[in-house]
């Protein structure tokens, strides 16, 4: 990779202030920038670094006004974070060539249909009566069970397991180790203390433009479907239980878990290690802070929850003031009791 700063600016539809002919050949954070690297500034708290960075160029917002002298070339754009993502996408195309063709050995049942420009990696398996769209990439050692559907331009990385009758939309990315459609956790307690397995007869439906991280698991429904709606982004190591519905454009961070039959709204943010019990409804635009435990439905849109069991973040912060003072308060109470 080697570009002039002017070439980068043209790609990003930006405006250059400084030496546009200088070449850049690597990407680094603004704190670690070196000559020949390009960085970006999106979060205001990192602004102090722009005055001392050694990066040859920094992508900034078009209304950015330096408070003192800047020794780097600036590229002004409408949205630094999004434009920087565009740059990363172009570099990815250069360093990660697009796979195509069919490697050997790989297997597909005669009853299945595949679209054009397919990549099937070595030791991949496609079962009976599957429908695979155009430009789909199936990397080595991946498994697609019977009666599955995979939409156009979806990428299934190595070691992904998709159980039978599941549906994957278009423009999705599923990372290594993910399991789609494993049995939901359904066991009926018996009088003798044992458990009888409840057959899980549903499936998983993943709509378009969904990203699923490594080693994330989505269980099939007991009946009907577990549904992940369009635009959802799932981190690594997430558990989505049977009959859960995750609304459009919701993002969920690592190690979060959602129990069975819970309905999560649109544009929610669920932070790392958060847990939600079953059969709840989570309103649109809810934010659930890290390690929070949700035990009741959230009905009001735009609520932020924190704690375990979680409460509204404003109440949590007020309560925490008193919590920190508990040792002092306990000591005062003890002294008062002694006086009595």
TrEMBL record:
- Report if keyword Endoplasmic reticulum is assigned: no
Family annotation (InterPro entries):
Hexapep, Hexapep_transf_CS, LpxD, Trimer_LpxA-like_sf, UDP_GlcNAc_AcTrfase_non-rep
Single GO term (MF): N-acyltransferase activity
Q: Name one GO biological process term.
A: lipid A biosynthetic process
Q: Which keywords has UniProt assigned to this entry?
A: Acyltransferase, Lipid A biosynthesis, Lipid biosynthesis, Lipid metabolism, Repeat, Transferase
Q: What class of enzyme is it?
A: transferase
The UniProt entry's GO CC annotations, sorted and at most eight, read: membrane
Which EC number(s) does UniProt give? 2.3.1.191
- What is annotated as the active site? 242 (proton acceptor)
Q: Where is the UDP-3-O-[3-hydroxymyristoyl] glucosamine N-acyltransferase non-repeat region domain?
A: 24-89
**Which pathway, per its entry?**
Bacterial outer membrane biogenesis; LPS lipid A biosynthesis
According to its UniProt record, which reaction does this protein catalyse?
a UDP-3-O-[(3R)-3-hydroxyacyl]-alpha-D-glucosamine + a (3R)-hydroxyacyl-[ACP] = a UDP-2-N,3-O-bis[(3R)-3-hydroxyacyl]-alpha-D-glucosamine + holo-[ACP] + H(+)
**What does the subunit section of this Swiss-Prot or TrEMBL entry state?**
Homotrimer.
- Tell me its family: Belongs to the transferase hexapeptide repeat family. LpxD subfamily.
Main function: Catalyzes the N-acylation of UDP-3-O-acylglucosamine using 3-hydroxyacyl-ACP as the acyl donor. Is involved in the biosynthesis of lipid A, a phosphorylated glycolipid that anchors the lipopolysaccharide to the outer membrane of the cell.
Name under which the protein is recorded = UDP-3-O-acylglucosamine N-acyltransferase
């Amino acid at each position: 990779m080697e570009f002039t700063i002017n070439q980068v600016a043209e790609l990003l539809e930006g405006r250059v202030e400084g030496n546009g002919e200088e070449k850049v050949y690597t990407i680094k954070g603004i704190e670690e920038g070196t000559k020949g690297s390009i960085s970006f500034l999106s979060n205001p708290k990192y602004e102090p670094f722009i005055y001392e960075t050694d990066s040859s160029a920094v992508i900034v917002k078009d209304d950015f006004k330096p408070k003192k002298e800047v020794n780097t070339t600036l590229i002004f754009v409408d949205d630094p974070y999004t434009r920087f993502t565009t740059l990363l996408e172009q570099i990815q195309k250069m360093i990660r060539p697009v796979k195509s063709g069919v490697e050997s050995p790989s297997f597909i049942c005669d009853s299945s249909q595949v679209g054009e420009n397919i990549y099937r990696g070595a030791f991949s398996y496609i079962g009976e009566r599957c429908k695979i769209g155009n430009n789909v990439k199936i990397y080595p050692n991946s498994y697609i069970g019977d009666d599955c559907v995979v939409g156009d331009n979806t990428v299934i990385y190595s070691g992904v397991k998709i159980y039978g009758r599941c549906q994957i939309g278009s423009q999705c990315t599923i990372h290594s180790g993910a399991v789609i459609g494993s049995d939901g956790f359904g066991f009926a307690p018996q009088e003798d203390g044992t458990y009888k397995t409840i057959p899980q007869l549903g499936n998983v439906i993943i709509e378009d433009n969904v990203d699923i991280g490594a080693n994330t698991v989505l269980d099939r429904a007991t009946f009907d479907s577990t549904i992940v709606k369009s635009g959802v982004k799932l981190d690594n190591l997430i558990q989505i239980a049977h009959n859960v519905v995750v609304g459009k454009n919701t993002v969920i961070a690592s190690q979060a878990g959602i129990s069975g039959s819970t309905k999560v709204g649109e544009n929610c943010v669920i932070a790392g290690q958060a847990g939600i019990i079953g059969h709840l409804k989570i309103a649109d635009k809810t934010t659930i802070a890290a390690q929070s435990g949700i035990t009741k439905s959230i009905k009001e849109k735009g609520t932020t929850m924190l704690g375990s069991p979680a409460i509204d973040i404003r109440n949590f912060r007020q309560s925490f003031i008193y919590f920190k003072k508990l040792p002092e308060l306990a000591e005062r109470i003890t002294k008062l009791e002694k006086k009595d």
